[in-house]
Write a structure and sequence with these properties.
The complex is a heterotrimer of chains A (about 375), B (about 240) and C (about 250). Chain A has about 375 residues and is α/β, with parallel strands linked by helices. Chain A is built from 15 helices and 16 strands. The chains are: A alpha/beta (about 375), B mainly alpha (about 240), C mainly alpha (about 250).
């Protein structure tokens, strides 16, 4: 656990970067510091491992006052991931990863063995081990950065905008894998970002900081979306708050309707016969949804079997027991208005209509107001 | 060991009346014609090779970038040439060109070779430093290649070029003096003279005079180049003033 | 003339010592000795100093000051120092000439090594430095394990530059009666023996080229491939950083 106790950072010219910050980042959870430029989020992060020294207050790492430990020793027990990875260009990937373990005295051989496991964990192929950072893409370098931070198995990780320097597609991948990793490892993580969506996506709790280093609100993402504490937070969190909040609620008892299906490769005549409103849902042999077939399309088709290129693939698919947002999106994006629901391995369970999802939301809101 | 006579007495027509290092000005006044001639020769010998070198290096450097396969051999050859010590190059030039071994031409020729060797690299790197977006924008606007070079790329590459020119000129000043040790007429002769006159006791004035003149020359060239560079890049001044 | 030079160089009697003349081998070893002594001393002074100034950022005025030394004419300084120092050693061996020569050579060799070492450390990517400190490296560990290896290309460039300077100036040291390959140039000039003079020039040029080649070889060996960008085609991934690194490596050849 990391505790900020009235921590202040004031510079000699008078600027206050962090103003009496007090909060607790619970063990095993991801706490995100988010805010506009100049809000002190990076400064606060860097005070945890004493890259910047506070001018007032104390920072506790579990029961240890961080000022009572020598900085180098402190940092060897904290994983540190920064925006541009900062990999050592003169060392191979594997030697980059084992930096802290070797600093701590582990034998290189041992450390390298463990590093290979770590590489697999963060999604890097083993063949990259003997390459140099210059040979890797930005996304791959960031994975190495994460592996390097994890190498000595520190209980705490500090991450300063680690995914900001990569393109959006790669960033999404990295975020997903990061969440997966955290679910396996359960580290205490403080994560800094300027992107509120990333904060909401990744944080177990989010600290919104205002310019001047004040803590505006510390809350779970759902709470932040539904109850922003002032205008600044409301504005920073942005529009579509209600809609985005749906991403945090599981849709419990959605009414699931049966849906007639046809297997891919079946004769078109069968497909047309089975279609109710001019559309039929096409699945594979495992009952996994492939797309919708319109009878109009099938009539003008040249082949006489259901082929993949005839299918309408625009609709998203929602997992049963997933969030309201996913279910509503499935319904809204489906050409028939019937959102496809699947089980945890992707097999069709049934469909749901947008109106059914919304009435569920209504009853929930109604129950809350009573 | 030096006489501390007042300057006025020293200025009276008594050459070598003092061997003090501070007497260099008096010495200069006593040997004005020789010293000025050497200074003049030295100045020209420092400047002309750089100018000619730049004229040759510009197309070469441009070519080395235009055809990337030319870049490695160009760099290697110029590197090799620059590696050869100046005095060696001085004595090697005449036989290779079929000239008299002691011809005065060896100095400007060798120094031009050095300047080219240095400046080709500088030109190539300077043109490299122009952002790709700028050159592409210029082409899109309708600049032909040659016009683009002179109107856009060279002005932007100017800081790098100026830095290289400064190195070339200042090192030339020193190298010209080295040619003085093999009999060529320039400020280096002052050092030879001073050395020969320094037995049995040290005779400083010509030596100090030579150092003073060389340093002054180097400084003047450097300042002129810096000022010239600044004058030709007004946009940099505007940025700095912000 | 070229033929005469060639004859002079291949005449084996010129390579051995005779009663009247010192041979090429002797002068060569003298030249190397002077050069190496000066380089070692300059490196011992300038390398740690450059590392320190680059790492801490204090004392950059020293680097600027050292750079301004380049404006001094080498011949002038050599003669001046010789004239000042050698009379004190009159009558004894060459030492009266060796000392001013070595001082001049050291003074020449320090600026390139100092300024390049300083620049090398300064140019280390700030993100790399930040990561190194953040991971728990002490100051000296950051310097030794990260900043030094990453600065090697520029440091080598400075050492090579200094080596060439020293070899070139050691040649001129033969002006004052010292050994070295310059002896052939100045004796040849005095005796109007042009094959000897030009032969001396050839020898000096070859020595300089060989020394530079040797250092380039050491550099190739010592600098991590991650920095120089020497990857085999099949493992190469991105072109941008590799090209940039290649160009940086080339920067050290002049």
């Amino acid at each position: 656990m990391i505790k900020f106790d009235d921590v202040t950072k004031k510079y000699p010219d008078g600027t206050v970067a962090v103003d009496a910050l007090s909060l607790v980042a619970p063990s095993g959870q991801i706490t995100v510091f988010v805010g506009p430029s100049g809000c002190g989020k990076t400064t606060s992060l860097r005070m945890i491992n004493r890259m910047i020294e506070p001018t007032g207050g104390t920072i506790w790492l579990d029961d240890q006052d961080t000022r009572q430990v020598a900085p180098a020793t402190l940092r060897r027990g904290i994983g540190y991931v920064i925006q541009h990875a900062g990999l050592f260009p003169h060392r191979t990937i594997i030697d980059n990863i084992i930096t802290v373990p070797t600093l701590l005295g582990q034998s290189k051989k041992q450390a390298r063995l463990r590093a290979m496991e770590l590489m697999e964990r963060v999604g890097l192929e083993a063949r990259f081990a003997t390459r140099y950072p210059a040979q890797l893409s930005g996304g791959q370098q960031q994975r190495v950065g994460v592996a390097r931070a994890l190498a000595a198995d520190p209980p705490v990780m500090l991450m300063d905008e680690p995914f900001s320097a990569v393109d959006p597609v790669v960033r999404e991948q990295l975020q997903q894998e990061f969440l997966r990793l955290q679910s396996e490892l359960g580290k205490t993580i403080v994560f800094v970002t300027h992107d509120i969506d990333e904060a909401i996506k990744l944080g177990d709790q989010v600290a919104v900081l205002q310019v001047g280093g004040h803590l505006a609100q510390l809350a779970t993402p759902a709470e932040l979306l539904s109850n922003p504490v002032n205008d600044f937070v409301a504005g920073f969190v942005g529009r579509d708050r209600g809609y985005r909040a749906l991403g945090f609620e599981t849709a419990g008892n959605l009414p699931v309707s049966e849906e007639p299906t046809v297997i891919i490769g079946s004769p078109l005549a069968v497909a047309n016969a089975a279609a109710s409103d001019g559309w039929i849902l096409v699945v594979d042999d495992d009952r996994r949804p492939q797309g919708w077939l319109s009878t109009g399309d099938s009539r003008s088709a040249s082949a006489d079997q259901v082929m993949p290129d005839m299918l309408h693939r625009g609709g998203t698919v929602a997992e049963l027991g997933g969030t309201f947002r996913a279910a509503l999106d499935a319904a809204l994006s489906s050409p028939t208005g019937r959102g496809v629901l699947v089980d945890e391995v992707g097999r069709l369970v049934g469909t749901v209509r947008a109106s059914e999802v919304v009435s569920q939301l209504d009853t929930r809101a109604g129950a809350a107001s009573r | 060991m030096s006489n501390t006579l007042p300057m006025t007495t020293l200025l009276a027509d008594t050459s070598s009346s003092s061997s003090s290092p501070w007497y260099f000005w008096g010495y200069f006044l006593d040997h004005r014609s020789d010293d000025l001639r050497w200074l003049w020769d030295h100045t020209w010998l420092s400047i002309v090779p750089v100018v000619i070198g730049l004229v040759i290096a510009l197309p070469l450097g441009w070519l080395a970038r235009r055809y990337p396969w030319l870049y490695p051999p160009t760099i290697t050859i110029s590197g090799l040439l620059y590696t050869i010590p100046s005095i060696a190059l001085f004595v090697l030039v005449p036989p290779l060109l079929g000239l008299d071994p002691l011809t005065p031409l060896q100095v400007p020729i060798a120094l031009t070779v050095y300047s080219v060797a240095l400046l080709v690299r500088v030109v190539a790197d300077g043109l490299d430093s122009v952002p790709v977006d700028v050159t592409q924008a210029a082409t899109a606007i309708g600049y032909g290649r040659v016009r683009r070079l002179f109107a856009v790329e060279l002005p932007i590459a100017l800081p790098v070029l100026t830095a290289g020119l400064r190195v070339a000129t200042v090192s030339n000043v020193s190298m010209v003096a080295i040619a003085g040790t093999i009999g060529q007429a320039n400020l280096g002769q002052l050092f030879i003279l001073g050395y020969q006159l320094s037995s049995p006791t040290p005779y400083y004035p010509p030596i100090v005079l030579g150092i003073v003149f060389c340093v002054l020359l180097a400084l003047v060239f450097d300042l002129l180049l810096v000022a010239g560079g600044r004058a030709l890049t007004p946009w940099r001044r505007a940025v700095a003033a912000r | 003339m070229i033929g005469d030079v060639f004859t002079w160089l291949t005449d084996s009697s010129h390579w051995r010592d005779t009663a009247y003349d010192t041979g090429i081998w002797t002068q060569l070893s003298a030249h190397l000795r002077f050069s190496l002594i000066a380089l070692v001393i300059a490196a011992v002074i300038a390398l740690p100093l450059g590392l320190f100034i680059g790492h801490t950022g204090k004392g950059t005025a020293l680097v600027t000051g050292a750079n301004s030394l380049r404006a001094l004419p080498t011949v002038g300084i050599l003669v001046l120092l010789t004239v000042i120092i050698s009379p004190h050693f009159f009558g004894r061996t060459d030492i009266g000439f060796v000392i001013p020569t070595e001082i001049t050579l050291v003074l020449l060799a320090i600026p390139p090594i100092l300024s390049n070492t300083y620049a090398g450390v300064q140019n280390v990517d700030p993100a790399v430095r930040d990561a190194a400190r953040g991971m728990g490296m002490t100051d000296s560990e950051v310097l030794r394990q990260v900043e030094l290896p990453c600065s090697l290309p520029l440091i080598f460039s400075g050492v090579r530059s200094a080596t060439l300077q020293v070899i070139a100036t050691a040649t001129i040291a033969s002006l004052v009666p010292l050994g070295g390959l310059g002896r052939f140039i100045y004796d040849g000039l005095a005796q109007q023996d042009f094959p000897q003079m030009i032969g001396g020039g050839v020898l000096v040029a070859v020595l300089a080229l060989l020394a530079d080649l040797l250092l380039a070889g050491v550099q190739r060996f010592a600098v991590s491939r991650g920095i120089s960008g020497r990857f085999s085609k099949k493992t190469s991934y991105s072109t941008g950083p590799v090209e940039a690194a290649e160009i940086q490596a080339e920067a050290s050849t002049v």
